[in-house]
Specification:
Helix content is about 80%, strand content about 0%. It is built from four helices and no strands. It has about 140 residues and is mainly alpha-helical. The protein has two domains: about 60 residues; about 70 residues, no CATH class.
Length: about 140
Amino acid sequence: MKTDERVNSEVKVAKSIGYSIFWFGIFIVLLYRWFVLNQTLMETLDFFLVWFVASLVHFFALASKGIPITYPVSMSKREQLYFLILVPLLTGVLSVITVFLRVGMDIKRILGGFTVSFLGMFVLFLLYKFILYSWEKRNT
């Protein structure tokens, strides 16, 4: 069987679709187990680690290839800065909502959940931007 660019392209598309289904599927299973079955992170640690590692590998593979964090949406530098701030803020707010729904109204836990989520996502985005900047500097 001959292999040409068209076949290679179709294989990449099929793998991409499979990965997306796998990634979202594990995420949906995690949400179901956390919020419907009321399981803890320790009870779902196996699923969570697979999902988390796959997410990080995908995240940093894109950064190392020089693909902007907002791909395929093109954004100006100013819009990317807003994105860099707003997404971690929304992550922190979602964390507060989930902590509030699961644990109750304890201000230390709510602020702790917000802080860890916001800073974690913000540091990941800054690391992504640093890798992307290094890639652009090296390849231009």
